[in-house]
Amino acid sequence: AQKVTQAQTEISVVEKEDVTLDCVYETRDTTYYLFWYKQPPSGELVFLIRRNSFDEQNEISGRYSWNFQKSTSSFNFTITASQVVDSAVYFCALSENNAGNMLTFGGGTRLMVKP
Amino acid sequence: DTAVSQTPKYLVTQMGNDKSIKCEQNLGHDTMYWYKQDSKKFLKIMFSYNNKELIINETVPNRFSPKSPDKAHLNLHINSLELGDSAVYFCASSHLRQGEGDTQYFGPGTRLTVL
Questions:
Q1: pLDDT tens digits for range A47-66
Q2: A108 contacts in B (CB within 8 Å)?
């Protein structure tokens, strides 16, 4: 069974601080995919990144960066110099190769960035 | 130019009624999904259709019946609504290529409130 854990339910930071959102996953598959989605207060789910299990390179996109470590089954997300607009619920998700592309989501981390 | 659209955005109804939520995607994807987000923000897959064929059916009461008239549409019909059905329902779509873990793109969600 696949499982995704986001241990931080809520994080509060002040604008311009860096913040890391943790994601730990469990799977027995050797081929799997990891995702992050953002859910702003308006409610939609916005795709941020997709990573496959064979690609452990870290990725940077502007102020966002992701650290994938298979050894610790983690796929952490860092926002550098946070802004108020980053305030949202962030979801980590996993899909296994033979599970019909079904996404299993973590419980989400609510990030509040205060001015 | 909306990619994945859902109607209605809000649905308020009485217990025992039957209601439908419509979903359409114009991304040319062959697979569509329904997810349920409960009051604690937890997201869980309900159904998945590939080329109008059901491929994922998680443990969902048979009061919920998805219908896919074509690849671009996946509607959700709910019979005999119960209080516990109150949630936000998200439609999503993706390609489904074996071994690719294709990214799912989500609609804006439908907030269902059962009174």
A1: 999 999 998 888 899 999 99
A2: 41-43
